[in-house]
Amino acid sequence: MVGVTQNPLDDPNADSKAVARAAAEQLAIATGVARHELAFTLGSGWAKAADLMGETVAEVPATEIIGFSAPAVVGHVGTLRSVRLPDGRHALIIGARTHYYEGHGVRRVAHGVRTAAAAGAKIMVLTNGAGGIKSHWTPGTVSLISDHINLTADSPLEGATFIDLTDLYASRLRDVARTVDPGLDEGVYVQFRGPHYETPAEVQMAKAIGGHIVGMSTALEAIAAREAGMEVLGLSLVTNLAAGISDAPLSHEEVIAAGREAEARIGRLLADIAVRL
Ligand code: HPA
Prior knowledge:
Elements: H1 16-31, E1 38-41, H2 49-53, E2 55-61, E3 79-84, E4 90-94, H3 106-118, E5 123-132, E6 142-150, H4 171-180, E7 185-191, H5 200-208, E8 213-215, H6 218-227, E9 231-241, H7 252-274
Parallel strand pairs: 1-4, 1-5, 5-9, 6-7, 7-8
Antiparallel strand pairs: 2-3, 3-4, 5-8, 6-9
Helix pairs in contact: 1-3, 3-6, 4-7
The chain binds hypoxanthine.
The site of hypoxanthine has 13 residues, from strand 5, strand 8 and strand 9.
């Protein structure tokens, strides 16, 4: 139909890596930056880090780059930004995350990560706002992700692609993060499909199988990043205690408010980590 923009990733015959390469080429032209050495996906509460990391060279609405979608959620930013770090390297800041719960399929979920890899990034930093299972955590706590459990029953990989996920969230990068804040805790991230929050029983299940953090974004992206050969650093902002860990009911407004309250502090933390990566 004339006038309707199709996302090429919705075509079952599309080659998702070729679309990512095309996106990286468009990004290089739009930003004037040929190569991005590292990339950050900034989830709830983390957006401020982009301002603190260095000088913004260019900012592009994500929808102008092939394969990206408009953000589905109020409070999520939809841009791709190129930031020059003090040492001259360029970071690609992906403020346009497509969540699995949006129902557009895993290819769109993985597209940001794949574009970052095609743009040259060797390190992928994935951040999110998430629920905390450790009862001593309080909203505003930052936890490194040490591993994940993927409960979406899906994968961004296609065909018989057998990828090792050992040390997926690189212990080397967690050590780097701890040189900035030695007190950073870590935990296993459990990805649920969402968009509903978990029931208290589901949170107890996540705890029983070894989880410490519950969320709706990062595991599928991390798998795509590993396939693309990138090292992954994962950071969760605990915006709330997970359902049933505290008696309080959950709300998206509470998640956004916790992010806002924490943004200056965690933005500084991430900017300080970025220069050491
Ligand atoms: N569960 C899942 N995703 C979330 C949560 C939660 O408790 N808080 C923020 N994102």
